[in-house]
Amino acid sequence: MPTETEKIELSEDELREITGYAADCARRVLAIFERELPDDTRPRDAIAGAEAFAAGERRTTALRQSAWAAHKAVKEAPSPAAADAAFAASHAAAAAFLHPKASAHQVKHVLGSAAHAARAEELLADGDERGAAEGTLAWARQHAPAAVSAVLGRLPAAPAGGGRVGEFIRDLDAALRV
Questions:
Q1: Mapping DSSP to helix (H, G, I), strand (E, B) and coil, where does residue 81 land?
Q2: Confidence (pLDDT) at 40
Q3: Tell me, what's the pLDDT at 128?
Q4: Cα torsion for 54, 105, 170, 20, to the nearest 10°?
Q5: Cα–Cα distance between 71 and 42 in angstroms, integer?
Q6: d(CA 51, CA 49)
Q7: pLDDT-derived band at 5, boundaries 50, 70, 90
Q8: Using alpha carbons only, what angle is made at residue 109 by residues 103 and 115, rounded to the nearest 5 degrees?
Q9: 6-36 per-position pLDDT tens digit
Q10: Is the separation of the CB atoms in 33 and 72 below 8 Å?
Q11: Which residues pair with residue 101 across a beta bridge?
Q12: Residue 67 neighbours by CB distance under 10 Å
């Protein structure tokens, strides 16, 4: 296992696959945010930027700014579920900027979008919170591209903490790590 100061191999193709995966996870819960703030396009724009990068476009300052804009939308979200949906979108755009260093924090960048999507679904569930989150987590496990597992295998395990989202990140990390 690499130490926190070591660099890891991280190809542009892997970065694109991880970003596309994160965008897919975030898109699953975008409607949660948009039902409450239909005129706020920041999360949608972040996901679209992530999808464009995953499809081969350049990684730009505009993409990074869209990640920050979606992050700012979290503070304006009327409900915790909408906030987690915006966090998922922010993580999707930010995944394009994953650093090639062996830091447990980087695991959050790989899996944050999926974990926040699961939390958004869990918060909306009426009586079956665990089941709603598990459905989203199962989808995330089944749809993770090979690059997710390969890169996780080069990183230290997900860090402790982070509340319920942190639990989801650790669960996904354990399931997807090779």
A1: helix
A2: 98
A3: 67
A4: 0
A5: 9
A6: 5
A7: low
A8: 125
A9: 889 999 999 999 999 999 999 999 999 999 9
A10: no
A11: 7
A12: 23
